[in-house]
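Q: what sequence does this backbone want?
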């Protein structure tokens, strides 16, 4: 009979948000979308301004 290998127990896919890293910069999804739209707008208008 083969020897069994016991692996350590995991969280089973559960996430503990209280133990996650707290970032100094917190952006809302609306701010991220606004920033992306700003970059796209600058990228489109830049050739016309030069």
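A:
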């Amino acid at each position: 009979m083969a020897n069994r290998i016991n692996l350590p127990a995991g969280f089973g896919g559960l996430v503990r948000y209280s133990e996650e890293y707290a970032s100094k910069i917190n952006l809302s999804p609306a701010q991220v979308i606004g920033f992306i739209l700003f970059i796209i707008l600058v990228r489109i208008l830049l050739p016309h301004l030069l």
